[in-house]
Structures are given as structure tokens and as C-alpha cells.
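Reopening this one. Same input as before:
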Amino acid sequence: MKTFLFQGDSITDANRDDENSDNFGLGCGYAFLLAADIEKNNKGEIKFINRGKSGDRITDVYARIKEDIINLKPDYMSILIGVNDVSHELTMSCGVSPKKFRMIYKLLIEEIKDALPEIKIIILEPFVLQGSATEKLWDEFNSQVRGLAEISKEIADELSLEFVPLQAEFDNLSADGDTRYWSVDGIHPTSAGHQLIKEKLAKTLETIW
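Same output, byte for byte:
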């Protein structure tokens, strides 16, 4: 049996139950949707684990590298991280600078690959939309999250990882101004937003299974 690990912040966490190892442990977001779709036709072949944690920045994911990544020995891992590195700085002055984001993200991936040489890692692009959580500092949110998105893509390219673009998809779908259809607050996706992430990730997975 292969193991797929979802890693990231609250978007990945999606209210998962830490104490429950069955599907409730996958939360109610894109991780659950993807697992449900794949498990339907692959009974007993793939085990899905969600270790996304609400509020996490890249430094927090790195702090959990042994317990929540390496010790789980996943064959596949996706990671969606970056928006809290910006939002925590803008709202609480405890975010992560672009320079440190790049350094820690690259170190995280390198250490995972050293410990698990056969693992296949997929980086999902951090994204942001206008909403109640972002509108007061929209220019800063928009420019800084997109900056971390560029860094995420560069790291994927440098380390030969799959990259899932999301910002342009959300931009295009919300071009009519109805961003609340896709995100409840500019950061957290609605069910439709999670479905979009699931579809983009699933398409990438088709190339690496």
C-alpha cells in the first residue's frame, strides 16, 4: 500500500479531526475530496493522511518535519503553504520574510528527500483573493503572497518537483468580482474553491502515479 500525505496550513487542515484516523481525519476540504475520488476506484491501494495544521507558516511545517512527515514515510506528499507567512506579518508582526521562506522551504524539501529518496513531492501555489480577511491590506496581501508563489515555483523548478498553479485559476474564475463564491474570506476556500484545488492536484497526480 502506498501512502499519500497532505501537508500545509488551515486550507489543507480544513477542520480535520486529529484524533480520528479514518476519513474525518482528512478534514472537509480538498484533501477529503481527492481521497474520496481516488479511493473509490483503488480500494486498499493508497492510504491518505492529512497533517495540515491551521495557522502554520513554513517555519512551523519545518518544525514538524520528523513527526508529521519523515516518520510517516509517505510515498507521495503535497504541500500548500505561504499565506500565513504573509498574513501573520501583516496582522501580528510574526510572519516569515521572503528570504527566510525560500531558505526554510528549500531546506525542508532537501531534508525530506534525503530521508525519503523515493518520495514524490508536489508543491501547490499559495494564493489570495479579495475578501474580509484581506481587503483592508489588499495591496500588501496581493503583492506579498504572489511573491511567495513565485518563490514556491522557483523551488519546485530547482528541485525538479511538480508544481500546481492556483492563483491564475482563482483570478480567472472570480473575474466577475464574485470572489466569495470561491473563498469565504479571501484566504480560505469555499467548497467550490476546494473542488478546484482538488481537480488541479488530481490532474498533476495523473502524471506521477
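So the earlier flakiness isn't reproducible anymore. For the record, The radius of gyration is 16 Å.
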